[in-house]
Design a protein that fits this description.
The radius of gyration is 34 Å and the shape is elongated. A hairpin with an 8-residue loop joins strand 6 and strand 7. Helix 11 packs antiparallel against helix 12. The protein is built from 16 helices and 10 strands. The protein is an alpha/beta fold and about 425 residues long.
Length: about 425
């Protein structure tokens, strides 16, 4: 029976003897109590080195009572379980030193079994809150935070980082940092592995950090968004790196410029009394940004904004053309926007910038200025169409970080958040 219970608890200590199993009620909750004793054979004194018996056969290391401790284990059949363990105490007659027997399944001066500690560490790799982990493991929130902070030693923050050939950089909102609201994150584009997280994205801090790395000259591509601070890194820190702007941000910039014009057109139509036309532009905005190559030209049907019998059956192309009749400036912008989008989609950087530099003067002035702002990032945009690199993998990590922040109701400590992010990305392995 004793060995069977030890197998259930996954304990292999031969010196542990289980006496009995009982139940008790604490704070109106019942829990399972295992009464056990730990009494290994006496060992030599660690202080003076005395053996159990001297040369004359006189006993030097003697037993000196037992110390009772309560060790918390994982739940068993949805019931909290503890072990009332009596540990043997020993005394050395030569140096008057006292010590207590220890077992492998619990750390000295601790009351939580290693089985439960490993469960907490395993749950820390999931996107769940600390309070949920505490509730699931029947421990206090302070205990979970303490175990989390103990993992700080696994961080490799003091070691010099080895930078990859293709480096992705980005930022995410972090209220836990006192230096900046936006924290910095970088990762390897080829493997997708997280490299490091910094509490701020300020250029001075980033420059100092990357200058401490040993292989800056081996970074060939720096993939980033349109943050001007990151452009300076290629000049000061990465002399051999080509700047590559993430394609998503380029398309987003063009889409936003067109959508802003559409909204201004809607407001203008409302002021002029054409509220129904403005409503049609609002409802069907997705069709205006749809790839022209995927527009249907043959299937006739009724549309939400042009219902029969008042309106004849229309193809998708005819419906879009009817929307563009509401505004001449919107039609011109539609053509210019899709010409640029097609060139970008075909990765024809020569034709793309030729269109961008020679936009018609008749275009809406604000729309034209927003598009031509892309000329400031010409090098990065050209490289985006030449090289097959993007920030997709690091944006996925940012999504995981946002989920972690949401379920955790935020973080007060940047270090705690950094440890959780490292654990989610499996950069901390506890053995």
């Amino acid at each position: 029976m004793n060995d069977s219970i030890k197998k259930l608890l996954r304990i292999t200590d031969k010196n542990l003897e289980i006496v009995d199993v009982s139940y008790e009620t604490v704070n109106k909750k019942q829990r399972l109590v295992i009464n056990a004793t730990l009494s290994p054979c006496p060992q030599a004194c660690k202080s003076c080195g005395s053996t159990v018996k001297d040369s004359d056969g006189k006993t030097i290391i003697v037993r000196n009572g037992k110390k009772k401790t309560t060790i918390r284990f994982d739940e068993y059949n949805h019931m909290p379980m503890v072990m009332q363990l009596k540990k043997q105490r020993y005394k050395c007659k030569n140096c008057e030193t006292y010590w207590t027997a220890q077992s492998y399944f619990v750390l000295p001066k601790h009351s939580i079994a290693n089985h439960l500690r490993y469960k907490i560490i395993s749950l820390l790799t999931d996107k769940v809150s600390l309070s949920f982990i505490a509730k699931l493991c029947t421990v206090s929130l302070t205990t979970v935070i303490r175990i989390l902070k103990e993992l700080k030693s696994y961080l490799q923050g003091n070691a010099k980082k080895v930078l990859p050939k293709v480096l992705m950089v980005d930022e995410f909102r972090s209220h836990a940092s006192l230096e900046d609201k936006m924290s910095f994150i970088c990762a390897d584009r080829e493997s997708g592995e997280l490299i490091d997280i910094l509490p701020t994205r300020k250029l001075s801090r980033l420059t100092t950090y990357f200058q401490s790395c040993s292989n800056n000259d081996q970074v060939k591509y720096l993939v980033t968004d349109m943050n001007a601070a990151y452009f300076q890194l290629t000049k000061t820190v990465f002399p051999n790196a080509n700047l590559v702007i993430d394609r998503f941000h380029i398309v987003k910039h063009m889409n936003q410029a067109f959508q802003d014009l559409r909204v201004r057109t809607m407001k203008s139509l409302q002021i002029k009394g054409f509220k129904k036309d403005a409503q049609k532009l609002k409802v069907n905005w997705r069709f205006l940004t749809k790839n022209r190559q995927n527009i249907n030209h043959s299937e006739y049907k009724s549309w939400r904004s042009f219902r029969s019998p008042k309106y004849p059956l229309l193809t998708e192309a005819m419906m879009i053309d009817r929307l563009l009749t509401f505004s001449t400036s919107l039609r011109e912008a539609y053509e210019a926007f899709h010409d640029l989008a097609d060139a970008f989609r075909d990765k024809d950087h020569i034709f793309f910038f030729d269109l961008l530099k020679h936009l018609p003067e008749s275009l809406n002035e604000e729309f034209r200025k927003k598009l031509q702002n892309l000329l400031k990032y010409e090098e990065g945009i050209r490289n985006a169409m030449i090289y097959p690199y993007s920030n997709g993998k690091i944006e996925a990590k940012n999504t995981h970080i946002k989920t972690l922040k949401r379920v955790s109701y935020g973080f007060k400590s940047f270090e705690n958040m950094k440890i959780r992010i490292y654990m989610i990305n499996h950069l901390i392995e506890v053995k």
